[in-house]
Specification:
- This protein is α/β, with parallel strands linked by helices.
- It has two domains: about 120 residues, 3-Layer(aba) Sandwich (Rossmann fold); about 180 residues, Rossmann fold (3-Layer(aba) Sandwich), CATH 3.40.50.
- It is built from twelve helices and twelve strands.
- Helix 1 runs parallel beside helix 12 and helix 5 packs across helix 7.
- The mean pLDDT is about 95.
């Protein structure tokens, strides 16, 4: 009996390929060449499974080309790159990789916050450019993180991991979420629910941590930025499109807010060039989950989701549970 076929669209780790090969015929893009939609369609047509990344668009047109497709296993928590409704209509299971990247992504949010508060990219360039001639009292003044007010918009697993870390800095933590957390969890996190407008007005640091969707598109725009303190710092380590990048650039130029730390962008990797002219912004290339241990765990989680589906089982991380195994 022949094995089911799986297409892996981007390079993964050797142990992931070995695991998949024990269960499937594997067509893996280990050369890590960016595949066009047409190339993915051609290679996916005879396959029963797709293991993809958040940069791969899985839409209704692609799905229509693949009559045998049973599962789309995304190597990410978010899945806005996938037309879940179209998959569901065809009986195709969609899976993601929650849980394994929470702490690494929370660490990155804190990295951006600390680096932005202390102007780390600016001062490193200052040293590398040979401009440092000595210590001065009023040189490169940043802002304190300790004892400041941290506002988290989006209090899921990653938001909660960010809040836990705030205790070590004696921060006041406020949060806004569509659904308020249970009282005992709020107490453990030492976090207080407030409206979004209250959070924007009170927080010294605003961290965004919610999925991207039509509802969260440009959640932070010119209106919201104007609500923030002029001394506040915005951190976006969640998804591009949650922030109106053009409005943020204008706010940073005008001093509406102090600074921003960004790991994600609209239309990435096509970065709005306005960011590059700013000194009061720290930029990183969507590396929230990018530690070796976490990325290995993500790839294996996606592979396990795919293999379970192909074996006729309910995968552990099913996004559309209305599709039956």
């Amino acid at each position: 009996m022949s094995k089911p076929r799986i297409l892996v669209t981007r390079e993964v780790f050797d142990e992931t390929i070995a695991f998949l090969a024990a269960h499937c015929d594997v067509d893996a893009n280990q050369a890590d060449v960016t595949l066009t939609a047409d190339a993915i369609g051609r290679r996916l047509k005879p396959a029963q499974a797709l293991m993809c990344s958040l940069t791969d668009k899985v839409d209704a047109d692609l799905i229509a080309q693949c009559p045998d497709l049973k599962v789309v296993a995304n190597i990410a928590v978010g899945y806005n790159n996938i037309d879940v409704a179209a998959c569901t209509a065809r009986g195709i299971m969609v899976t993601n990789t929650p849980g394994v990247l929470d702490d690494s992504t929370a660490d990155l949010a804190w990295t951006l916050m600390l680096a932005t508060a202390r102007r780390l990219t600016e001062v490193e360039s200052y040293i590398r450019d040979g401009e440092w001639t000595g210590w001065r009292l009023k040189q490169w003044l940043g802002v304190d993180v300790h004892h400041a007010t941290l506002g988290i918009i989006g209090m899921g697993r990653i938001g909660q991991a960010i809040a836990k870390r705030a205790g070590g800095f004696d921060m006041r933590v406020i949060y806004h979420n569509r659904k308020r957390l249970a009282v005992d969890l709020e107490q453990r996190l030492n976090a207080t629910w407030v409206t979004q407008d209250e959070l924007l007005a009170q927080a010294d640091f605003v961290i965004l941590q919610m999925p991207y969707s039509k509802e969260t598109h440009h959640l932070i725009g010119a209106y919201e930025l104007a609500k923030m303190k002029s001394t506040a710092i915005l951190i976006n380590s969640t998804r591009g499109g949650v922030v109106d990048d053009a409005a943020l650039i204008a706010a940073l130029q005008a001093g509406t807010i102090r600074a921003a730390g960004l790991d994600v962008f609209e239309n990435e990797p096509k970065l709005n060039p306005g960011f590059l002219a700013l000194k009061n912004v720290v930029l990183s290339p969507h590396i929230g989950s990018s530690t070796e241990a976490t990325r290995r765990a993500m790839a294996m989680t996606a592979a396990a989701n795919a293999v379970a589906t192909l074996a006729g089982q309910r995968p552990p991380n099913l996004v559309n549970p209305e599709v039956k195994a």
